[in-house]
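Posting for a labmate who doesn't have an account.
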Amino acid sequence: MKKIHSGKLRAIGYDAARRLLRVELEGGAALEYSGVSADLWRRFAASGVAWSFYRDNIEDEFPAKAGARVAGSASSQRAALDALFGGGSVSAPDSSAADDGDASSQPEADGSAPR
């Protein structure tokens, strides 16, 4: 797989024996296009505007099927972090454990310990 960052494309790869193009998109989705020629693959891989090339020459021109989702995608990484840290919700710190600044914990004006 060739890592790229063009539009929503994140990686592209080609299996010449099966004439199968694999495209990985942001978010971890993957599509496989069958019947893609080696020449088209070479032009796609060398294109300076891969997203435009994909949209113009591949997306609607070849049959696609969903490939296996990409391991380590942003959504799967987020899910792992959410599971580890409790679902991603942010809560305020527990104020009962913190010094709330009430007079009982402050020194007296003359410097003596609180009563």
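Reply:
Got it, the structure tokens are right above this. The longest strand covers residues 9-15.
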